[in-house]
Amino acid sequence: MAGGLEPLEPVKDQASLTKGGKAPSVAADRTNRTAALLFLAPAAVLLIVFLVYPTIYTIALAFNRGRQGQFTEWVGFDNFVTLFTKDPNFIDLSHFPPSGAIWNNILWLVFYTGFVLILGLVVATLASRVRYESIIKAIVFLPMAIAATALAVIWKFVYAPDANTGLLNAILGVANVGPVSWLGDPGFVNAALIGAGIWGSVGFATVILSAALKGIPTEILESARTEGATERQIFFRIILPMVSLPMSVLAVTLIVNVIKLFDLIYVLTNGGPGTSSRVIAFTFYQDGFRSGQFGKAAAVAIVMLIVLIPVMIFNIRRFRQASVT
Amino acid sequence: MAKFPRLITLPVAAMLILSACGGGATPTPGSSGTPASNPPASTGTGASTEPGGSAVTGGSITVTSLWGGSEQENFQKVLDAFKAATGITANYESIRTDYPTVLQTRISGGNPPDVSILPGIGFLRHFAKDGSIKKLSDVGIDASSIAGNYAPGILEIGAVGGDQYAIMVKFNSKSTLWYRPDTFTADGVTPPKTWDEFKTTLATLKSKGEAPLGLGTGPDTWTLTDWFESIYIRQAGPEKYDQLFSGKLPWSDPSVATAVDTMKEVLNDNFVNGGIKAANGRAWVDGIGQVFGANAKASVYYEGGFVGGIATGQVNKALEIGKTIDWTDFPSIANTDKPVTIGGDVIAALTTNPGVKEFLTYMTTKEAGEVWAKTGAIISPVKTVDVSVYPNETTKKEAAQVTGASAVRFDGSDLLPAGSPDLGAQLQKAIAGDTVDWASFESQVATAWAAE
Amino acid sequence: MTQPSALAGPAIQERPTTLSGRIVKAINRTPIHIALGLIALIWLAPTIGLLVTSFRPRSDIQATGWWETLSTLRFTTENYSAVLNAQGLLGSFVNNIIISIPSTLLPLTIASMAAYAFSWVKFPFRDSLFLLVVALLMIPTQVAFIPVLNLFKPLGWTQGYIAIWLVHTAFALPFGIFLLRNFFITLPRDLIEAARIDGAGDIGIFRTIVVPLSVPAIAAYGIFQFLWVWNDLLMALVFVQKNTNFPMTLAIQNLLSQYGTEWHLLAAGAFLLMIVPLLVFFSLQRYFVQGLLAGSVK
Fold this sequence. Notes:
Chain A has 2 domains: 50-89 and 279-325, no CATH class; 103-277, MetI-like (MetI-like fold, Orthogonal Bundle). Chain A is mainly α and 325 residues long. Helix content of chain A is 64%, strand content 0%. In chain A, helix 4 (101-127) packs antiparallel against helix 10, helix 5 runs antiparallel to helix 8 and helix 10 (231-260) packs antiparallel against helix 13 (294-322). Chain B is α/β, with parallel strands linked by helices and 452 residues long. Helix content of chain B is 43%, strand content 12%. Chain B is globular, with a radius of gyration of 24 Å. In chain C, 69% of the residues lie in helices and 0% in strands. Residues 1-14 and 291-298 of chain C have low confidence and may be disordered. In chain C, helix 5 runs antiparallel to helix 11 (215-230). Chains in contact: A-B, A-C, B-C. At the A-C interface, helix 2, helix 4, helix 5, helix 6 and helix 8 of A face helix 1, helix 5, helix 6, helix 7 and helix 8 of C.
């Protein structure tokens, strides 16, 4: 939370500041059910048919064998038990640090989300100080315009284990550092994959944060400067709190990406070497979905949902503070 | 579960709303100006779900597979020949990615293709047990009448639970050990016939310069399963091979660990060019490139007969068969028998629409086999196809290898049930020096067999 | 766009007019330029690699890294002609457009409306419902395939484009509602209240205040959605079941053989596929630069 400054609604204009406190809220808060219905109906219909109904179907399926997506036989919590105890690829607590898909997702959660947010902010800030700002932003955003299969080929070429075909190894070779098998060495593979993921997502973060930064009124920054605040103080006590809302939005999106992450891993390593780069969604698609064991796949999906609920609740609470009621 | 009828009314209501206001916006198909030059681009109406869909003479059916690119072009020639012979148009639809998933969703969605060519037997059993695939007898084809077209064992591959569901249409040998004759001559070695000779050959090649084996297993872990199967069938024998890949022999059986140890005798940092970690991070095509590319350093590569086409067509167009690329039989291990493992695709009917029976029957004929074999893309399982139609020496040899084999077996990992754990991933671990828990693997495989 | 913003550092009241002043300023900026240069390099190099690869013969791609081409200068256009001449490619390009435009415009509209309701219309259970919508963000699309296809079966919608439009729209809604709602709630209360006091209904407020002030957010959401749909493969595979309706992503995949080793075609195909998204991004760029999530009213 912001240190020492009003954490509530980002200041929009001087006018509302000088009104001295909360504005009268009667008219804007009038309960209006017809309006709600009108504006929500199309979304509600689509969401219910395409998302809610399949979700309920899936939740029910998690307690079933679920062959071919049909309800064939009730198995209670069997799928969950198998998932957590009999599948060492999912979670393996027999040694420290633990291994398994869940552990890898945690790695992604921490490093991918963290670096994308930090790098996004850094690039947005730096770019705002130069004249060629939009060029930088376009360059960093470029990976988002590239189709997933092409991205995989790009990274295959970057991470190839031979110094004459792999870009990274060729660069290392110039410094006489031996070739590394980025995708074949269990010690490096997750870092390599997370790196590729970060590369692909920083542009998204930069675009959003750059616009958020531009929305900070110049008067506030200048008045802080004239009062003698250092750049550091300005950054941590004014800028950061003001972009905290967009950063939360970003963080939620990134976290969701992490939980659903599959394609990059499937194409680059197929979960390997061995099973060292598997993630939860791998279990979902490979072991469950593609094999026709939809019950097991559904159980994985429920686990994913449960993991995300606390994150969602935390974010909703934050947003509630930001909107004055 | 009694709750469901209630939950269904909501989406039904939704559908009614949607169809009432959204119905008029369907664009006309075919208005996007696709060139009509080749049959697959135009639409036939045969893909509908009505029985007896299309008209009298001609009419059309849909055929799907996961081939694209040049494989598709080559298969198209067969479809053209079929049309010339019967007047029926077979429209090819390629499902290049997620083949089993997409096929399953089309079946569940009530829009199955008429004919599907399946790349694995696990899928075949899966779909057969669900009733998504028709027995040959349901389509009007008598299995005994076509049995004569095939060598013993081939038709059985397409049978599930005693009923004939599918027919093998193409395959490649997986017992081809590829090598560079020029390097071999220069280093004074000859193609090995036994496993011990193989190890000696590799050691000699290594001493003369470079680690000789090319290998790429990441993400293509399946290539390691081929190594394993080739070793296992020659070491433990075809009967045990059958048992292992049908769920009758557990993976914790010592023969499995023995075969893996044998694998490690050659797949190790000593013989594999670049080392094992590099191999596990390299695509299999790059493994071919290590041996046959323009900057080749290694000289031996093991994979199936399709390596020839890929090597000469893509990896290095300057290769010359016999001089810079050739293959020899995978070395024998326990005895001098020459079993052959093959990988291939089987064709099955998903509907009984008119044209389907004719198409399946056509695919069992010598004519269809030869049209396809001439392209050099495949080996035809039809016995009567003349070896001379194959366009080059390596494919001719391949066809002969299979007919002369002591036993023919289908690629084991393609026989395992669809929910099995990844054998290739375990083998990756094994060659990297980690211990593999075969008991745990077995229990997961057993669960998959039971769930089938 | 080119004015240095207030973020640029200590408020510099004037630009240095003397040459030495300018040099000093440039030197102060040098670390920034170096850092940005490095960033640009890291973000361009892999893509440039693919671009160069798309102009190399397949055997070269196998043998050496793309930087070798800079010395051997062995280029070819055969990859591009192979892709362009692939049957039905022009048609699939048109299909891409037919699929992408409604799949972008529909969610834009519907999500905006729903987001407005979640931000400025009070109704019971508003926050809980919003939580539910946000939770739907993590539903993997695969979950919907079979149940939804079962619904479409009697309607035959997969024979046309309706199925894919609806599916893309539905799956885009959670993110859209989430993003736009978080933008809408930062709009000035006073404006909205004033409009209400003046008697405007919700539709009026939505049309005349919320949407115009939110163009940057809506544009950003639009472009994210457009990119996502344009490059999509799996949904098209499942919900577009007539192959004359296939988008370009599928058409390019179909150029590959069973083992997927034709990287030269993938590289060329990727760049052909990228042209439209890049055009769209650059032409909509200016909408991004205006305050995206904090309103443009200062």
